[in-house]
């Protein structure tokens, strides 16, 4: 009997892995964004009830391997997955793609958390947020001297000093250049997500001389096996699942 894999996803990388999985495996989504309809594996949407609920699920569903391919900033999900895997005595693997590195000409302002972001953008007037949904909870806090543009997956109402763009990467150099020039941004706010789907904004910031307020990555739990690319994961899964 083939060992069952629970793939924790919600990223483009995770979707690529999910497309390589057969029907006995499970792709888990937190519930944000679109649910893919072209997968052979099972798809589960929603939370597990913390680490304890996930540990129960692993036992009940006879999961033999947890593969964490969630976003690098989904620290709580990763922590729960590591704890649950240990409790259920199931191997915990993780895809941890490499962070971006500043290049010559970059002006990165490193911060920790939302309070750090607000402090770093205080001198600027036209801000492009590429953090995901978090700024949506703060649209009523936009200072009088600023206009925010928030790009995320969710359609959301803006107001006179805040606009929302619902868009999903990958983003091109040409598209990012047009966006930044049309928006007349003087600062970009980003997470150091790594990968190439959203990296174009950094190249355009470099080209236009825009500072980037960059949120540091949170600490993530160690995994028994860590991968940095999707292809590395796919290359080993076919051989490993028969021997877990």
Give unreliable regions as ranges: none
Shape by Cα distribution: elongated
Which homologous superfamily in CATH is the superfamily of the largest domain?
A: NAD(P)-binding Rossmann-like Domain
Task: Please give the radius of gyration in angstroms.
Answer: 19 Å
Query: What's the total helix number?
Result: 7
Following the backbone from N to C, one meets helices and strands in this order, namely EHEEHEHEEHEEEHEHEEH
Query: Structural class, from secondary structure content?
Result: alpha/beta
Task: Assign the CATH topology of the largest domain.
Answer: Rossmann fold
The CA-CA distance between the termini, in Å, is: 11 Å
As for the number of domains, it is: 2
* Strand arrangement in the largest pleated sheet: 3-2-1-4-5-12
CATH class of the largest domain: Alpha Beta
The total of beta strands comes to 12
Describe what this molecule looks like in 3D.
The chain is an alpha/beta fold and about 240 residues long. The protein is built from seven helices and twelve strands. The chain folds into two domains: about 120 residues, 3-Layer(aba) Sandwich (Rossmann fold); about 110 residues, Rossmann fold (3-Layer(aba) Sandwich), CATH 3.40.50.720. The strands form two sheets. Strands 3-2-1-4-5-12 form a six-stranded parallel sheet, sandwiched between helices. It has a six-stranded parallel sheet with strand order 6-11-10-7-8-9. It is elongated, with a radius of gyration of 19 Å.
């Amino acid at each position: 009997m083939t060992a069952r894999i629970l793939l924790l996803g919600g990223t483009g990388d995770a979707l690529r892995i999910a497309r390589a999985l057969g029907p006995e495996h499970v792709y888990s989504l937190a519930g944000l964004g679109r649910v893919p309809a072209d997968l052979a594996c099972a798809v589960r949407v929603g939370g597990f009830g913390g680490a304890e609920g996930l540990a129960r699920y692993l036992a009940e569903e006879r999961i033999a391997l947890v593969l964490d391919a969630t976003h690098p900033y989904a620290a709580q999900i990763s922590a729960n997955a590591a704890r649950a895997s240990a409790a259920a005595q199931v191997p915990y693997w993780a895809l941890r793609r490499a962070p971006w590195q500043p290049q010559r000409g970059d002006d990165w302002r490193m911060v920790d958390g939302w309070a750090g972001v607000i402090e770093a953008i205080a001198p600027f007037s036209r801000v492009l947020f590429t953090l995901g949904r978090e700024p949506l909870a703060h649209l009523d806090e936009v200072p009088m001297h600023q206009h925010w543009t928030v790009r995320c997956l969710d359609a959301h109402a803006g107001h006179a000093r805040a606009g929302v763009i619902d868009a999903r990467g990958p983003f091109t150099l040409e598209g990012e250049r047009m966006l930044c020039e049309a928006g007349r941004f003087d600062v970009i706010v980003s997470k150091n997500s790594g990968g190439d789907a959203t990296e174009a904004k950094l190249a355009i910031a470099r080209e236009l001389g825009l500072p980037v307020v960059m949120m540091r990555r949170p600490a993530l739990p160690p995994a028994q096996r860590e991968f940095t690319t999707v292809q590395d994961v796919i290359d080993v899964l076919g051989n490993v699942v028969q021997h877990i």
